[in-house]
Amino acid sequence: MSGALTGIGVERFLDREVMAALARPLEQARGLPSAAFTDEAFLALERRLLFSRTWVFAGRAGDLAKPGDVRPVEVAGRPLLLVRGREGDIRAFHNVCPHRGARLVGEAQDGRTMLTCPYHAWTYTLDGRLKARPHFHRPDCHDQAGDDNVTLFPVRCVTWHDWIFVNLDGKAEPFEDFIAPVSAWFDGFDLSAVRCASHRAWEFDCNWKLAVENYCDFYHVFLVHPALHQVMAKEARKAMLTMGRHLMNEYWFEADNRGGLGDKSGFGMPLFPELSAANQNRTCYSVVFPNIAINVYPTNAQFVHFEPLSAGRTRMHMWFYYVGDAASDPAHASLRDTVVEEWHKLNMEDEGICRAIQAGRHCDAYDGGRLAPYWDTGTLHFHRQIAQVMTAA
Ligand code: FES
Ligand SMILES: [Fe+2]
227 is in which domain, residue-wise? Predict the structure, then answer.
């Protein structure tokens, strides 16, 4: 956060009038104001008052496959360190040495037994305890054990399936409570059965919130996604449901049209284990508040992270998961490629729309919009959750 921005309070953007407009019934409500999508100062506030206060994605457990694997990451603009310890557990720390504040780890490292600071070589165990301080007392007079309570600064961290979540301020609700509605929504799909096969990323010229909103907007399918419109039954398209802070949706295939979302359904690969007959014709979606989406199909899943790059630019990461060995079996390589390619086409169809909805937020006349009662329940809920978290005492 630049020094010039630190003094700006959230009330400059979310004043009483805005909060009152958000609280009105959907038909009369207004969404977040344009500046929430265009002003770098608002993104700086989001880093401090939204992403630091909630559970947010920090990395994939599969990316730290072995004990001693260490990954520097950035979360909410803060440098963090993910470490898989000797017992296989994953911890998160602020990526800073408690001595003089040097960044502890600059690049991904594998198989470490200790973490050593590049400035004066203070050395820490993988669980963050100080182990040694060379020349600490004077030249050639070392401190081997660490005779005070110096430790790395821990960050609250939970691994859920392949996904590592952190809570920077340490005050969010227990992770189990946070994720419970999402787990319940995917009940019947055993997420522990999937393996990550690949990662792709796309960048959009829009604020991260617009990318999230567009991602879960079924309304625009008829116009922006003609191929999807052809295969997706109109009567089965629904607005997002709200559960906890999250958003959910589902789509039921016709029983005789199991590829009901086109080739990205991935049929032909193994189904989730013990999938019920009903779930074999269902896909389910969730926006995990604030900036994650998870899609689950009968044969595959995607984990999506909307990474804010600036107020007006977002990188959308998508990791592709398949059931068990289908993630690596050469026999399924072309089906996996098809799934990814179909998502690429779909995301490219959204690229221009994302640019357009961002450009519109630069018009002074726009006041948060007129919301569509059938479709925009999820968008209003999303805006309300953001405002509520950011203005909490
Ligand atoms: S700053 Fe890390 S050892 Fe001095
Ligand atoms: Fe779209």
Answer: 180-391
